[in-house]
Amino acid sequence: VINDSGRAPAIVGLGIVPFGRHPDRTGLELGELAARNALCDADLDWSAIQFAAGGSMSGGSADALVSRLGLTGIPFQNIFNGCATGGSALLSAQAAIAAGAADLALVVGFDKHDKGAFALDPATWGLGAWYGESGMMVAPQYFSLKIQRYMHDHSISRSSLARVAVKAFRNGASNPNAWRRTPVAEQDVLESDMVTDPLTQLMFCSPNAGAVALVLASPRRAREMPNPAVYLSGVAFRTRRYGAFEVFSPSIPLHLGQSVTADAAAAAFAAAGVAPSDVQVAQLQDTESGAEIMHLAETGLCQHGEQEKLLQQGATECGGHLPVNTDGGCIANGEPVGASGLRQVYEVALQLRGTAGPRQIPTKPTVGFTHVYGAPGVSACTVLTV
Amino acid sequence: VVDELLADEGLLWSWTVQRFAPKAPFFADGHPFVPFGVGYIELPGQLRIESRLTTADPSKLRIGMPMRLVLHASAADDPDVPAIYEFAPQVSAK
Questions:
Q1: How far apart (Å, rounded) are the C-alpha atoms in residues A66 and B70?
Q2: How far is CA B94 from each of CA A55, A106, A140, B65, rounded to the nearest angstrom?
Q3: What would the DSSP string read from start to end of A226-238?
Q4: Which chain B residues have a beta carbon less than 8 Å from that of A118?
Q5: What percent of chain A has pLDDT over 70?
Q6: Band of the pLDDT at B74, cuts 50, 70, 90?
Q7: What pTM was estimated for this model as a whole?
Q8: How far is the C-alpha of A114 from the C-alpha of A52, rounded, in Å?
Q9: Is any Cβ of chain A less than 8 angstroms from the Cβ of B31?
Q10: pLDDT for position A1
């Protein structure tokens, strides 16, 4: 129904640069390459684009891409919202198209990070210097503390934690754009080095490099394009509310409120007029395997505690009834922050087009969902339909 | 803003062990990195506070166990080490 309303823009061009290490290319070069790939996929020249938005954490200033793509004078918004950068850029492009300010827009996310966990300045996040000095301002700690309590409350096993990673590497193996493409056994995941209990090294994603770009078109313009349109039926970006247990919290209230993930997911589903139970393929933030498990329930795709059964039955595998992170997710792709959210949209769009190759979901899905979560408690979600 | 004194005893709500050395601005005291525990302590009627723990041994940590506030040992001995608080498992009577 939403597709006929004439308001939801369509994704008509997909471009990606394989995720990994790119010592021979700058962040901006990666962004340029992704943009050119998306334009090529849409059979468009850069001069046709009327609005652009994008961002990067460590790879450079997105609007500097105009000197590489062409000095056409269009508005190019720089956007940075951590892991939600891609979703935030999509929101801007959608608004520009819905407002009639553009018929064709480009969004791009790219990054190039150093090895290892991020070094963070507490002042950037409004926190005292003592918090960083104490050694508590470390994102993996947050995810570990959250899943440790969640496993206690909802009877999630370590086997299920490992299965998320096993699935990620298996899906990554069939994705030529993924970074870690060697399948691993459940036992190997459990026995890899403990990083922050209960999470081991093979359960974590790592910062790396990569880029994704998408071309969006108004519904009218989308009908003239060569590719089947994938509609951006809902897109939502939210910041945390009081009481939510989010990353970098020196204290939290006794009575916990709804997470920012739940807020953003509900808003995206409401905008699309779609229920979580309609989703046939999902990409969820899997900074580590515990996050995918918790986000499954927080987004409404299952009930809290139901994950243990779903994972042990293989329901979230490509051949299951709720395929999750079919491209290998962050665990197999790594996390170039600016590009990560758009990678999810890229993968779901491929699945909805039916061109995902060896990892194509056999039932040819028509409703997909993406979700990112990041510091300091932000989330962006999309609902995609064909 | 009203100041409120927090309790120095509570229950362990969740825990983990930091097993790799955090990057700056983590205060490195010049010695080789030693893993440390981190948890949230539930202070009844008040809130849950994030804190380093005196033990990094998972076998000594379980959700719901009683904890009490202490001053980080090296901070007590060395004026150059920033003073931080920690929580320690309460020694059971039995």
A1: 56
A2: 58, 67, 35, 14
A3: SSPPEEEEEEEEE
A4: 23
A5: 98
A6: low
A7: 0.94
A8: 27
A9: no
A10: 36
